[in-house]
Amino acid sequence: MPDSGLELRIDTRRGSFHLQLDCTLRAEWTVIFGPSGAGKSTLLRLIAGLDPADVAIVAHNSKALTDTTNRLYLDPGRRHIGMVAQHPALFPHLNVQHNVGYGLTGSAFQRHPMASIERVQDMLALVGAEHLAARMPRDLSGGEAQRVALARALAPMPRLLLLDEPFSALDGAASDALLDRLRTWTRANRVQTIMATHDAADALAIGAEVLLLREGRLVALGPAAQVLAAERERLRARL
Q1: pLDDT greater than 70 at residue 110
Q2: Chain segment 159-202, per-residue pLDDT in tens
Q3: What distance in Å separates the CA atoms of residue 46 and residue 95, rounded to the nearest whole number?
Q4: Cβ distance 86 to 164 under 8 Å?
C-alpha cells in the first residue's frame, strides 16, 4: 500500500472545460472512471506533468512532483513515474528491445549493459511480448504496440504508474489476462497505479478504488462495488 498516497489539488481550464478536484488517492490501484469528455486523460497528463495547469499541486508519498510552474520536476530523483498513453508512441527508429530499454539508460542502452537486457527481457515476458524483441514498431499490431509501451513504462521500476486506456487494442480475454498479471506485479513491487477507463468491468474485476469524474468534477471516490453500483446493474441487465 502507498505510504501516504497521491495528493491532488488541481484547478485548470481548457477552453470551456473546467477540471477541478481536491483529493488524496491512497489505494494501491485507483480507476478513474467517467464518460468521454469527463477529464480522465487531462487529469492523467496533469499528474504526469505533461501539461501546465492554472493550479496543479501534486505530491506522491509526501514528495512534491510539481514545481512552482505546475510542471513535473525534471530531476530524475524526483520523478519515478511511468505512463502509458492511449497511443503507444513507440520510437519508430528503435526495435522493441531498445524501446523498452530506453527508459533505463537512454542512448547508453546501445552498449547493452547486462542488467538492462535482463530487465527488458523480464518486462517483455510480463506483458507477453518476449517474442517481439527484435521487431520494429511498424511491424506491430495495435495490441502488440500497447504491450510494448506498457513494458517500457515498467522497466525503470516506477513508484507511480499512470495508465490511460492501456488495453483498448486488446480483446477481452487478452486484456483480462494482462490486467491480472499487471495487478500482481504492481502489488509485489508496491507501485501505486492510476488507470483511466470508460469500462466499468475493469474496475469491478480488480476491486479497485474508483474516482468517478463527470464534466471535470469529482462525483464520488470509494470502492468500485459502491461507486459503480448503478453501472454494475446496467452491465448485468445487458448480459
Answers
A1: no
A2: 999 999 988 888 888 988 999 999 999 999 999 999 998 777 77
A3: 29
A4: yes
Q: Which of 131, 146, 139 is nearest to 92 (CA)?
A: 139
| Residues 129 and 181: beta-carbon distance below 8 Å | no
How many Å apart are CA 78 and CA 72, to the nearest integer?
A: 9
Q: DSSP states of 98-140 as a string?
A: HHHHHHHHGGGGGG--HHHHHHHHHHHHHTT-GGGTT--GGG-
d(CA 238, CA 230): 13
Three-class SS state of 44 = helix
What are the backbone dihedrals phi and psi of residue 150, each rounded to the nearest 5 degrees, phi first? -65, -45
End-to-end Cα spacing for the chain: 34
Reference 65, options 51, 48, 52; nearest CA is 48
In this prediction, residue 117 carries a pLDDT of: 85
Please count the CA atoms within 13 angstroms of the CA of 69 that sit on its side-chain side. 8
